[in-house]
Amino acid sequence: MSNINLIDSFKDFKDEKKIDRPYMESVLQEVVKSMLRRKYGTDENCDIILNVDKGDIEIWRTRKVMEDGFSEDDALEIELAEAKTLDDSLEVGDDYIDEITLEDFGRRAILAARQTLISKILELEKDAVYTEYKDRVGEIITAEVYQIWKKEILLLDEKKNELILPKTEQIPADFFKKGETIRAVVLKVEMVNGNPRIILSRTAPEFLERLFELEVPEIFDGLITIKKIVREPGERAKVAVESYDDRIDPVGACVGMKGSRIHGIVRELRNENIDVINYTNNIQLYIQRALSPAKINSIKINEETKYASVYLKPDQVSLAIGRGGHNIRLAGKLTGYEIDVYRESEGDDEDVDLDEFSDEIEGWMIDELKGIGLDTAKSVLALSMEELVKRTDLEEETIRDILSILRAEFEE
């Protein structure tokens, strides 16, 4: 066992983990001082010189030369007779300096010291990882898939640090293979039993915000501000943007020529539909824009209760609600208002509630139509066969029968 064995443990971690050298050297110093205290009872009269690059540790001990019979502590003092055998020029009151080698401590002590050093450096490494990622919360990183489990994916960054992407933070359409690289945002960093746990997310609004910053230089430069983002991951997102420069169209800048900028973001989010709208303090106009692509006829707002009644033509209702209600839910989250939609009558004929056809149309079919915002006969008839097939889970033959029943009501 030699100096090299202990120093190599230090060098391996210093080079591989890129941890601050002066701090790590202080750790090695403390390990050696601990060995000195265990063997001699003190380290106060010892100087430790490290030459990590050459793999050397030098330990020099200074003891005061005392008259024979007057030495009280062998660790701090040496009697004249013994000192003379080592250096004939020494006299009482002089300092005797000798070198202590690691071999003087014995093999077992060196092994224990090596283990202590490794343990301390591992703790230092964990603290360094925690500190690094704590400062990177909200930042996009790229990591490689290392292990796939049922509830989460283990990834490794470029420094081989372990990162976690839980199933709950994955887009529903996400599918990854081992060795594949993933982009995600650092959601949170926590210490669990002394180990840093770094949680990533692809569903957080911050992930979409960082993607816009990467794709749209005007956002990165601060010329365009993202006021708010709401998402239903993998389905739809709404992004409110504002420009403080009248010469810049914030929506156009975010979408890009022929959608060039937003297409890359949509692909990253597994074809998530992204609506980019101009932010405004005019709440009526804001709600109108938030319900895009539906065209609004009129809006009644109660500012105290944060409630908005929106009136549309029958053929616009399903657009305002969106498949599965995604559009109206996101519009509510974006504006902070609870939104209800109402149909405005377009003719003299009275409309008929779908529930009135329960004898002819099965209840689950009526519920399917209501699920996309169609609860009257005319609202269903206002949509084409193709649109109804696309927006519901009903088969074409079933829809044809329903339309036939509803048309008969108005032909009588």
TrEMBL record:
GO molecular function annotation: DNA-binding transcription factor activity; RNA binding
Top-level taxon: Bacteria
Compartment(s) where it occurs, according to its Swiss-Prot or TrEMBL record: Cytoplasm
NCBIfam families: NusA
Any one GO BP annotation for this protein: DNA-templated transcription termination
Residue intervals of the S1 motif domain: 136-203
Pfam family, one: KH_NusA_1st
Keywords: Cytoplasm, RNA-binding, Transcription, Transcription antitermination, Transcription regulation, Transcription termination
Organism: Anseongella ginsenosidimutans
Name this protein carries in UniProt: Transcription termination/antitermination protein NusA
Purpose: Participates in both transcription termination and antitermination.
Quaternary structure (record): Monomer. Binds directly to the core enzyme of the DNA-dependent RNA polymerase and to nascent RNA.
Gene (name only): nusA
Any one GO CC term of the record: cytosol
InterPro entries in alphabetical order: KH_dom-like_a/b, KH_NusA_2nd, KH_sf_prok-type, NA-bd_OB-fold, NusA_N_sf, S1_domain, TF_NusA, TF_NusA_bacterial
Family annotation (SMART domains): S1
Similarity comment text for this entry: Belongs to the NusA family.
